[in-house]
TrEMBL record:
Name of the molecule in the record: alcohol dehydrogenase (NADP(+))
Superkingdom field: Bacteria
Location of the Enoyl reductase (ER) domain: 17-344
InterPro entries the record matches: ADH-like_C, ADH-like_N, ADH_Zn_CS, CAD-like, ER, GroES-like_sf, NAD(P)-bd_dom_sf
Sequence similarity: Belongs to the zinc-containing alcohol dehydrogenase family.
Keyword Metal-binding carried by entry: yes
Key words of the record: Metal-binding, Oxidoreductase, Zinc
CDD domains attached to this UniProt entry: CAD1
Reported cofactor(s): Zn(2+)
Listed EC numbers: 1.1.1.2
A single MF term (Gene Ontology): alcohol dehydrogenase (NADP+) activity
Length: 349
């Protein structure tokens, strides 16, 4: 290997502790592995949840980051998919069982035996996994994706989570011409939902707490924009949408939102609140409506998403930061003070 077995990184030493510069082990490049020189890493709200034990007990020290874009600098002897110099990305997981029915269908994110998360997890050897807030990562070639030439690495990085998290449900529930789609929340996830749904040909509405980002939403492709703080919105839009995708990480009044769904329509959650939610079942029964969830996408679908975004000129809208700004960025994410995704320039680590 051309670099040492430890690499610089930013890690949370304990739950709720500020992230700090450190070094973490880098596993050797195996037969089917690629070594990636990370150029950019997006900051996802889920990084904050996990670094602060919001979703349960974490593994510390924790190096977050599952929106990774970089360049291949070494390949194992059995690698056939990539060569040194290729632009590649790594998303939310770096392995799965490869044998179950869902892995066989390209739905590795729903692996029966559990995927290996890019960070805050343990690999098949029991070693902790470390994410993209670092200078390098080693992954199996089958769990990396190719970043097309038409996508710059900085705007591509957030697509590895935010992009696929919205692309997968929009495709699954057939967003397209003739369909009315609403995106709840215009943040790091939501702005990608607007862009992708518009590119798919759907009529897009943003449902946001206020009209503060209305101009942005319309510029990204939303035909309509409503404030959910105005209760009249829910009455005005009753029975309007074929599909609503919620990107927010806070509990919602599901009954109110389901009233806006058409008969046989769906309300899909991709945001993951830490608190439980409640629901009156009559909100579903009355219109044969579906309340669903969706989690990222498989490797093949992630590649499809990247190719789609490149073909349609879609990238995340980003604010590039230095590594020493990570803790400040976390607070700004919690305050909704980012338009629309922080991306770490990992050369500053």
């Amino acid at each position: 290997m051309s670099i040492s077995t430890s690499v610089p990184a930013y890690a949370a030493p304990a739950a709720k502790a500020p992230l700090e510069r450190t070094t973490v082990p880098l596993r050797p490049v195996g037969e089917f592995d690629v070594l990636i020189d990370i150029k950019y890493a997006g900051i996802c709200h889920s990084d904050i949840h996990q670094a602060r034990d919001g979703w349960g007990e974490g593994i510390f020290p924790m190096v977050p980051g599952h929106e990774i874009a970089g360049v291949v600098t070494e390949v194992g002897p059995g690698v056939t998919r990539y060569a040194v110099g290729d632009h590649v990305g790594v998303g939310c997981f770096v392995d799965s069982c490869r044998d179950c029915e869902y892995c066989a269908q390209g739905l590795e994110q729903y692996c029966v035996n559990g995927t290996t998360a890019t960070y805050n997890d343990r690999d098949k050897n029991g070693e902790p996994t470390y994410g993209g807030y670092s200078t390098h990562v080693v992954v199996d070639e089958n769990y990396a994706v190719r970043i097309p030439d038409g996508l710059a690495l900085d705007i591509a990085a957030p697509l590895l989570c935010a992009g696929i998290t919205l692309y997968s449900p929009l495709r699954h529930w057939k967003a397209g011409p003739g369909k009315k789609v609403a995106i709840v929340g215009l943040g790091g996830l939501g702005h990608m939902g607007v862009k992708i749904a518009h590119a798919l040909g759907a009529e897009v509405t943003v449902l946001s707490q206020s009209l503060r980002k209305k101009d942005d939403g319309q510029r990204m492709g939303a035909e309509h924009y409503y404030a959910t703080s105005d209760l009249a919105t829910f009455e005005q839009l009753a029975g309007t949408f074929d599909l609503i995708v919620s990107t927010v990480s806070a509990p919602l009044d599901l009954d109110a939102y389901l009233r806006m769904v058409k008969t046989d329509g769906a309300f899909v959650n991709v945001g993951a609140p830490e608190e439980p939610n409640s629901l009156n079942m009559f909100s579903l029964i009355g219109g044969r409506k579906t309340l669903a969830g969706s989690m990222i996408g498989g490797i093949a679908e992630t590649q499809e998403m990247l190719d789609f975004c490149a073909a349609h000129g879609i990238g995340s809208e980003i604010e590039v930061i230095r590594a020493e700004q990570i803790n400040e960025a976390y607070e700004r994410v919690l305050a909704s003070d980012v338009r629309y995704r922080f991306v770490i320039d990992t050369s500053t680590i």
